[in-house]
Amino acid sequence: MTKAAIKAVPELNDPGPVLPDNIGFQIRIVQMRIFREFYRMFEHSGVSPGMHTVLSIIRDNPGIRQRALAEILMVREPNMTRMVQSLHASEMISRQVDRTDRRAFHLYLTVKGEAMMASVAERIDSLEAMLLSPLRPEEQVALRDYLDRILEHIEH
Questions:
Q1: What is the rounded CA–CA span in Å between residue 95 and residue 85?
Q2: Are residues 52 and 37 both part of a single domain?
Q3: Residues in Cβ contact with 56 at an 8 Å cutoff, skipping those fewer than 6 apart
Q4: Same domain, 64 and 88
Q5: Do 26 and 6 contact (CB within 8 A), yes or no?
Q6: Are residues 27 and 68 in the same domain?
Q7: Which phi and psi angles does 44 have, rounded to 5°?
Q8: Range of the domain at 37
């Protein structure tokens, strides 16, 4: 575990548990802390990281099929169906039946969904800036490149 991660957990400063020092564990800890910061920033807003992620993907890929969305997020279809139904019921997205496969849906943000995404954009940008602030701009670009390369390598 990195020194920064150990310092952030006071109980780890005394001799105690030895935590894994591998990239998967470190990425998981970073993810959990990012979620913690997200929840702090969006407390009482009703916006969750999962909701924001799904709406962002739909916004950036209008008409994406529900199955493709589940595959991108590596979520089981029944779980994605529940999320889509919830977003549809809250009028954040619309579903249009595929003309060639009546069982498939294409997803779009509604005006309400677009407005919600616009209303949180500044806070999302602020959160990302805070999270990446320890890195110089060129390091931020490199980090994104490294993560993209890792994802491409393990994608299949």
A1: 9
A2: no
A3: 117
A4: yes
A5: no
A6: no
A7: 65, 15
A8: 1-41
Number of structural domains found in the chain: 2
Q: Which of 48, 38, 40, 30 is nearest to 135 (CA)?
A: 30
Are residue 59 and residue 29 in the same domain, yes or no? no
Helices (H) and strands (E) in the chain, counts: 7, 3
Q: Which two tokens stand for residue 55?
A: 């709406």
Note the pLDDT tens digit of each residue in 71-102: 999 999 899 999 999 999 999 999 998 888 87
Backbone φ, ψ for residue 4 (5° rounding): -65, -40
Q: Is the pTM of this model over 0.90?
A: no
The CATH number given to whatever domain includes residue 92 is 1.10.10.10
Question: Are 106 and 63 contacting, i.e. CB atoms less than 8 angstroms apart?
Answer: yes
The reply to whether 4 and 20 lie within a common domain is yes
Each residue's pLDDT tens digit, 97-120: 888 887 788 999 999 999 999 999
Could you report the per-residue pLDDT of 16-47, keeping only the tens digit for each?
Answer: 667 778 888 999 999 999 999 999 999 988 89
Query: Which residues, including other chains, have CB under 8 Å from residue 77's CB and lie 6 or more apart?
Result: 66, 67, 70
